[in-house]
Model the fold of this input.
Amino acid sequence: MTRRVAVVGVGYTKFGEHWERSLRDLSTEAGALALADSKLDGKDIQALYVGNMSAGRFIGQGHLGALAAEYAGLLPIPATRFEAACASSAVAFKNACIAIQSGKYDVIMAAGAEKMTDLMGTDAIATLMGAGDQEWEASVGLTFAGLYALIARRHMAVYGTTREQMAMVSVNNHKNGVLNERAQFRYEITVEQVLKSAMISDPLTLLDCSPITDGAAAVILVSEEIARKLDNPIWVLSTSQATDTLALHNRASLTGLNATRVAARKTYQETGLSSRDIDVAEVHDCFSINEIIALEDLGFCEKGQGGKFVEDGKISRDSEIPVNTTGGLKSVGHPVGATGIRQLADLTNQLRGRCGPMQVTGANTGLALNIGGSGATAVVSMLANGDAKPKR
Amino acid sequence: MTRRVAVVGVGYTKFGEHWERSLRDLSTEAGALALADSKLDGKDIQALYVGNMSAGRFIGQGHLGALAAEYAGLLPIPATRFEAACASSAVAFKNACIAIQSGKYDVIMAAGAEKMTDLMGTDAIATLMGAGDQEWEASVGLTFAGLYALIARRHMAVYGTTREQMAMVSVNNHKNGVLNERAQFRYEITVEQVLKSAMISDPLTLLDCSPITDGAAAVILVSEEIARKLDNPIWVLSTSQATDTLALHNRASLTGLNATRVAARKTYQETGLSSRDIDVAEVHDCFSINEIIALEDLGFCEKGQGGKFVEDGKISRDSEIPVNTTGGLKSVGHPVGATGIRQLADLTNQLRGRCGPMQVTGANTGLALNIGGSGATAVVSMLANGDAKPKR
Done:
């Protein structure tokens, strides 16, 4: 990266069911939180990058960039919406980093927002299938739980991954989320409860699935020059994006996500670091199986060993690679367009040492993986609180 | 701009009602046309930037970046969708320019696509209102024709702009579009026909309004180093974006678009050029009144004189500032997410001298204005076939 970029402010709303609040309320609150956290002024913001998956269907509203800029009092700065399904806001983040690297801007607010509860349940499910292939998947009745159920069944068949191992992902993330005041679900669950919860799409039960959520998140990104004047900047070492087929049937294998592997490889190349150098990770657990696959695709464990890795307790807060230390999508909630930035906000706080009871001791280098759809988009970002060096 | 960016290939599909073709067919064709035009290979493309306004509602499909990349055979490169209502693809173009300037990529395909005819008429109208304010405008029954009718009435009241002058915008653009093989409507119309066509929203009649259209457009953007090896690169001198309130009632005035003025000022500042240096312009004539206002906001004439400027014949192909020389949104058609790139494709061909019977003699410097919604987003881009210098 030619010009260094840093995160200097983060914020997100309480995630959950906000019946009394609109998308504009939520996005404005998240922006204000991030701005206050950065110690910068609204006048310093030169551009607004907003991730949103489907406000056009959830609330009938497009043109989200302008909407958010107006209500945040940021007019007339450029304001743009980015969409890559559930990876929408990581893509906004990536493009904001590029814009600062280019020299075009020095201070950008990158945000993500989604208001999902205004639609009835089945309409929300149909809207979410916009992230998959309408012609080849939605048209034959597939839902997103269905897509990931196919992936889960295949992973079980090829590698012997068990239902219990998947359940342990949800158990870990709920355990972490208890400590997160902004999480949607703040209670612990057991493997037995996961297995006995309502079947959604065999083998995935309700507690394998991230919820329908309203929420917004924002970060403030600045150039190196400005970052040096502010407290505890967190550096963006790399942010890489890759793409795969929209429909599952066009892929050579269902047991991994090629977009994740391509993006991770690029990130490791760009930084000279490897998975062994990561102290804390946010990974996309939209469904429990996806966290297991992410652990493999990111190189935290061997291919096929993700289930065992979880079962061996290696993702807990004080273990080998603390994953989703604030609750993940499962417990914090998954307002689809906001998740990517929420992950980066929590990762930033881990690297700043500001996570209170959720803090991972000695977290200097962190990684976030945000996935769109069933893996047609993957964005891998690596952040650090200084100059990250390979550990061995 | 630190690192120069050039357009080296352009293409767009026939615009119109493509009942037999899908969004993926159209976007793939546009990309292939632009790539062939550039003499580059698909393997050279490092990222895909796609503008689309509302495929989520028009065809139930989100995740347009991945969709387009897959069908174009471009996997696994990063692929992102940009949305800013009808300015979606100009925003994609702008971000692609920034990405090349940053050094992250050297070759990007920037595209735009929209498939609008799959929805019934009133559903399409409702979908388009996603570009305005759902809570404050759509909820009380306003349509986009209604929003621009309010703007037109105010412009008439304040400046004495006449119905006939507005009609002349459509007459000019249809006259130009006759020569464009890819235009949706290839016939001349008269002022009398415009005035007598069906009333849509007083004072705007059917022939003041751009149509519902299917279509896709693409351009290939490259770094200076690569551009130097290719034929006749067209340089991006500047691309600027600004934002205004989503709803009309929050604006100080209805007779101009502040976002256009802010973006234009920035473009003129960045280039050291003024409106007098522009040889050819593409401006956003979604409704006839908008072209009149654009002429004023871009500085081609004094505020309030846009109607007279058109009446005096100053926008025709051989006049002071040839505008919408290939037909504009009115005659070429307005597949909302594709329009911004279509404008830039036609502008590029004018600056290359490749417009055949539509060619403007001696066109060296050109400007495009793409507007989102009722002016909440404006993107002004200036291109040139060499080093543009002020004319006087």
